[in-house]
Write a structure and sequence with these properties.
By secondary structure, this protein is mainly alpha-helical. It has helices at about 5-35, 40-70, 75-85, 100-115, 125-155. Helix 3 packs antiparallel against helix 4.
Length: about 160
Amino acid sequence: MNNRLTRLADRIRTDIAELERVIYRIDEGWRRAKSSEDDYYLDGVALNLHGFYSGLERIFELIAEVVDGSIPQGENWHQLLLEQVGTELPGIRPAVISDDARMKLNDYRGFRHVVRNVYTFKFDPLKVGKLVDEAPGLFRLIRDELLTFARFLEQVD
């Protein structure tokens, strides 16, 4: 068994556990934001949504580096990385995530950009709420896909 691939599978599992905590924080922060109407909770939710996507992107980068042998470059590398992990590489690996997951993640990728480039007091609660509502189901889908991929890595000779 390839030690590097086994370590990657372990890292995927570890990061998934961390992301599960982020999903909890998103949900809890949103509950508090709605009950108190305190914009500071909305800011925290936005930051955790950013962390959710960024955590997944770190996993995708590791897969691209270790398994694929290349991480996309250029101005739109974030989008290209999503496309890369959503595509099967014949003879190398299956698609890491489904088309459905990739398309849904694209909204979070775009929101990550907003968090990094817009003043926090300009977050749209309706847009944040939509992402919050979809995050648990999307996380479950991606978690299952990543765990399947981790098992694939462990079976590679």
